[in-house]
């Protein structure tokens, strides 16, 4: 795939297609590590923690399952 840099403000951006983002399991909030190896630009996702969506889903599941118990413990 060949891409060109685009001007944005005082800098340049390299657009990443949605299909590539999906195959890398990244979204707009995923931190990316960028390194240079010779004349090659390497972009690597830095997956920190479980991610907001997974955490919210887990908390929701936990509340449904243990909500009454947690309320009783909080008293």
Order of helices and strands: EEHEEH
Major sheet: arrangement of strands: 1-2
Quaternary structure type: single chain
Average residue-wise pLDDT: 91
The percentage helix is 40-55%
Q: Identify low-pLDDT runs.
A: none
Largest sheet descriptor: 2 strands, antiparallel
Number of domains: 1
Bin the strand percentage. 15-25%
Number of continuous helical runs:
2
**Rough shape?**
elongated
Distance between the termini: 59 Å
Task: Summarize, please.
With 75 residues, the chain is α+β, with helices and mostly antiparallel strands. The chain has two helices and four strands, in the order ββαββα.
Layout of helices and strands, plus pairs?
Blueprint: E1 6-8, E2 11-13, H1 18-24, E3 32-37, E4 40-45, H2 52-74
Word description of this protein:
The longest helix is centred in the last third of the chain and has 23 residues, at 52-74. It contains two helices and four strands. Strands 1-2 form a two-stranded antiparallel ribbon. With 75 residues, the protein is of the alpha+beta class. The protein has one domain: Pemi-like Protein 1, Chain: D. The protein starts with 5 loop residues before the first strand and ends with a helix.
Quick tags:
Pemi-like Protein 1, Chain: D, alpha+beta, 4 strands, two-stranded antiparallel ribbon, 2 helices, 75 residues, single chain
